[in-house]
Write a structure and sequence with these properties.
Layout lengths: L2 H12 L1 E7 L5 E6 L2 H4 L2 H18 L5 E5 L3 H14 L5 E5 L12 E2 L7 E9 L3 H13 L2 E10 L4 H8 L4 E6 H10 L2
Parallel strand pairs: 3-4, 3-6, 6-7, 7-8
Antiparallel strand pairs: 1-2, 4-5
Helix pairs in contact: 1-3, 1-7, 3-4
C-alpha cells in the first residue's frame, strides 16, 4: 500500500464525519473533515511528510519555505519540512499568526523567513480558499514570493483552484472531499 493510500485511509478513519454540519464559510454540508485528528498524529505526520513532499516535487515548484496560517497549516508544513530534510532538499517551515504578537518583536510570521523566500502556502482543509489569502497577503507584505498553495483536502470541487488560478498560483490538492466521503461511506 502506498503512503498516499495509507494517508487516505487514516483520514477516512480519523477525520471524516458524516451528518449535518455548518462549515466555517457558513455553508451546510453532509460531511465534516477535521484534518487535525490526522495531521497531529505521529502516523499522520510521517505520511503527510512523504505525500506532501512528493506532491511538491511532482508539481515542479521549488520552494525554499512551506507554511501557512496557524493552526491548520502548522502540522502539515512541519511534516513536509522534516521530510524534505530527510530527502536532502530542505524546505524550511514557517507559521503565519492570525495577528502580530503584541510583545517582543511583534512578529506576524514565525520561523525566520527571509524576504527572498519562495513559499508554498499550506492549508489542511480548504473549501473556498479565502482563509489562506490572509497568509498569502502576510507573506507578500513581508517581501517573500508565494509560488503556490498546497491543501491536504480540497472540499470545493474547484472553486479554490479557480481563486488561486486567478492569482497565478497553482493549487496542489492531496485529496478532494468527495474522494474521502466516498471511502467513508464504503467503510460504513
Amino acid at each position: 500500500m502506498t503512503a498516499r493510500e495509507q494517508l487516505r485511509n487514516l483520514l477516512v478513519e480519523r477525520s471524516v464525519r458524516l451528518g449535518d454540519f455548518t462549515l466555517a464559510s457558513g455553508a451546510k454540508s453532509d460531511y465534516y473533515i477535521d484534518a487535525r485528528r490526522t495531521t497531529m498524529t505521529a502516523e499522520g505526520q510521517r505520511l503527510l511528510g512523504i505525500v506532501g513532499y512528493e506532491a511538491i516535487v511532482a508539481s515542479g515548484l521549488a520552494p525554499t519555505h512551506v507554511g501557512g496560517l496557524t493552526l491548520g497549516a502548522d502540522p502539515v508544513s512541519y511534516a513536509i519540512a522534516h521530510r524534505s530534510s530527510i530527502e536532502g532538499h530542505p524546505i524550511d517551515g514557517f507559521t503565519v499568526r492570525k495577528k502580530a504578537k503584541d510583545h517582543g518583536t511583534g512578529q506576524l510570521i514565525e520561523g525566520g523567513v527571509p524576504e527572498a523566500a519562495e513559499a508554498i502556502m499550506v492549508e489542511d482543509t480548504m473549501t473556498t480558499g479565502r482563509s489562506t489569502l490572509q497568509a498569502v497577503e502576510a507573506m507578500q507584505a513581508h517581501g517573500a514570493s508565494v509560488i503556490g498553495v498546497l491543501t491536504v483536502i480540497d472540499r470545493s470541487g474547484g472553486s479554490a483552484e479557480a481563486l488561486y488560478r486567478e492569482m497565478g498560483l497553482p493549487l496542489i490538492s492531496l485529496f478532494d472531499g468527495p474522494e474521502l466521503v466516498e471511502a467513508a461511506r464504503a467503510n460504513g
